[in-house]
Amino acid sequence: MNAKTIRQTLDTIAEMFPDARCELNHSNPFELTIAVLLSAQCTDETVNKVTVDLFRKYRKPEDYLSVPLEELENDIRRIGLFRNKAAHIQKLCKLVIDKHGGEIPREHSLLTELPGVGRKTANVVMSNAFDVPAIAVDTHVERVSKRLGIALPDDSVLEVEKKLMRKVPQDEWTITHHRLIFFGRYHCKAQNPKCEVCPLVMHCKEGKARMKPATKKRSVTK
After folding, report:
1. pLDDT tens, position by position, 188-206
2. Residue range 3-16+135-186 in CATH 1.10.357.10
3. Is there a binding annotation on residue 204?
4. Backbone phi, then psi, for 199, in 5-degree steps?
């Protein structure tokens, strides 16, 4: 996909989802970090239902360490992989207290040292909590990038991220991340994508393949 086509694609998605934003409810960098950690293999909607009570009960790292692990597990039981995530949260909180004075670090390399925090989570925190341009590649961003030809089908998550960083202006990285997520979550879904009404279907091999049976059927009918 050349630069002109990418520009048109980004502008089209921007028109489709002008209000794209981080949908994880949070009020500070610490809460955002916990929410993103919980969101792995789980919907933002489910995470928000859990964090309504979680963030009332636990307001700072010390709070998560003041209860037995089993109690924290029970508090996030509705979240997938809740046992592993509860353990990560307590380890993360201990490290944040011991090494960072109780505050979430503002450097990407330090964020990825935290238990349960990978590159994607660090990118989300950097961009949304600290206003540092970043593109976090989740399942939606990866799927959309590959379907639209911005990245290759066999590209790794890191390769997708690097290609997006090269092809998207840096001052648009964060908003593009949100728009690609909205496009993938509400339009270009993993199952039953809205190819028949997609203004970008001409760039999507999968979409064009999906549309062929319908075209052939209409031709036979005529």
Report:
1. 999 999 999 999 999 998 8
2. no
3. yes
4. -75, -5
pLDDT band with cut points at 50, 70 and 90 for residue 217 = very low
Torsion angles phi and psi, residue 168, rounded to 5: -110, 135
Fold of 29-129: Endonuclease III; domain 1 (1.10.340)
The annotation status of 188 as a binding-site residue, yes or no, is yes
Q: What is the dihedral of CA 166, 169, 170, 171, to 10 degrees?
A: -170
Do 47 and 39 touch, CB atoms closer than 8 A?
Answer: yes
Q: Is 42 annotated as a binding residue?
A: no
User: In the annotation, is 19 catalytic?
Assistant: no
Q: Which one of 85, 120, 146, 163 is the catalytic residue?
A: 120
Query: 75, 138, 146, 167: which one is catalytic?
Result: 138
pTM as predicted = 0.89
Structure token pair of residue 23:
């949908």
